[in-house]
Amino acid sequence: MSDGYEILTLDEVQTAEHRGSNLIPVRYTLGYRAAGVNGWIADAGGQLIPPHEEDSGNEELYVVVRGRASFEVGDETQDAPAGTLVFVPPLVHRTATAHEDGTILFVVGATVGEAFDGGGWDTFAIAFSLQQAGDMDACRALMQKEMEKRPEMWALPYNAACLESLAGNADEAFAMLARARELAPADEIAEYLREDSDLDNLRNDPRFQELLP
Amino acid sequence: MNVAHIDELEAVELPDGFTWRPVRRHFGIKAFGVNAYTPGPGGRIVEEHTERRYEHEEIYLVLRGRVCFTVDGDEHELGQGQLVFVRDPQLKRGAVALTDDAAVLAIGGRPGQAHRISSWEYEFLAIPHLRAGRYDEAKRHLHEALDAFPGQASVLYNLACVEALAGESDAALEHLNDAVSNDDELRRAAQDDEDFVSIRDDPRFPS
């Protein structure tokens, strides 16, 4: 097979837990660059889409690939067998639940008028799953690769710090927080530092107070 | 809720033997390219093509049934929940359905660029009208495409086809010459295209 294409079977991709749902990280696995593409998988009664709204301009299309789902969008509900497509505009609350075992949703998303800039929440979801599984080597390697690709993005060292904090590695966490603080607008990161429970393991350390403005 | 089952979407039968289900257009999606396909009478479900013109990365996901994809000369039989990601726009890709119920979702876009509606969507809408002799309808879609994509060679070429078939020789020759002026692939295609029988002997026909 040439390097110019690849085949993927959705239910064979390693899933990542994300806010109570099981993410099939399609975009990350393929390296797709033109839009956000991912999958969600759940058994009957399980949550498919984490309840959320998208920011202004973000359009999302959900497609039931296998099984059966129930969608809640705004104040409406909809039974959705395989082959159903649901388009959700920005700022509208949405979630979905599986009604059959092995139900798979595929989702495409992007922002109107903007080039897609991937590598955000879905990458973090994979990294957090690796940390939860105790595989810090793989978790660090993934975050390091992302930081090399996007050295200006402060959320990357910040999330790396959260992962190190959760794993109980204070020194590594503070090194990453120092890096994030250099890159981030001061008031923006200060809000996260004050409220993020992922950093609770660090709060009693004198170094933490030094980070706050 | 803005919802549709794939079988409820408009079915645009294309002469190349596949049926286009215009997902993006149905929902009015502006942020990304997404469409679906079901098989035509001969079983084709994805037209054989490259993405040289649009430079799109494409994903084809099988939603239902079984489908045989041919990518870069290799054949792959895929079922529900399997996809092929064609990263390289130069690679020839296409697919035939192995079961009558097959359905494929296609996602495409150019990395690093905000999504623009592709001109082929207008051309796909025009072509069934062209084949059915509804030339005014076909021209309406193609003029809409030209408004959105001034000077787009493939649109000008298809417009020339309609005009040639409708007996509007002067307009056809003008649009055909504009179409091929920077596109050698279309220049070659024009030499054998039966749509141009009525104008091929005209000295203005591009050689």
Task: Itemize the secondary structure elements and their pairings.
The complex is a heterodimer of chains A (213) and B (207).
Chain A: E1 5-9, E2 16-18, E3 21-24, H1 26-30, E4 36-42, E5 47-52, E6 58-66, E7 68-73, E8 76-81, E9 84-88, E10 94-98, E11 103-111, H2 121-132, H3 136-149, H4 155-166, H5 170-183, H6 186-195, H7 206-211
Antiparallel strand pairs in A: 2-3, 3-4, 4-11, 5-10, 6-9, 6-11, 7-8, 7-10
Helix pairs in contact in A: 2-3, 2-4, 3-4, 4-5
Chain B: E1 2-5, E2 12-13, E3 18-21, H1 23-27, E4 33-39, E5 44-49, E6 57-64, E7 67-71, E8 74-78, E9 82-86, E10 93-97, E11 103-109, H2 119-131, H3 135-148, H4 153-165, H5 169-180, H6 184-192
Antiparallel strand pairs in B: 2-3, 3-4, 4-11, 5-10, 6-9, 6-11, 7-8, 7-10
Helix pairs in contact in B: 2-3, 2-4, 3-4, 4-5
State the secondary-structure class of chain A: alpha+beta
Main β sheet profile of chain B: 6 strands, antiparallel
Low-confidence stretches of chain A: none
User: What is the H level of CATH, i.e. the homologous superfamily of the largest domain in chain A?
Assistant: Jelly Rolls
Helix content of chain B: 25-40%
Spatial shape of chain A = globular
Uncertain runs of chain B are: none
CATH architecture of the largest domain in chain B: Sandwich
* Tally of separate helices of chain A: 7
Strand order of the largest sheet of chain B: 2-3-4-11-6-9
Tell me the Rg of chain B in angstroms: 18 Å
Largest interface: A-B, 52 and 50 residues
> What is the global morphology of chain B?
globular
Radius of gyration of chain A, CA atoms, in whole angstroms: 19 Å
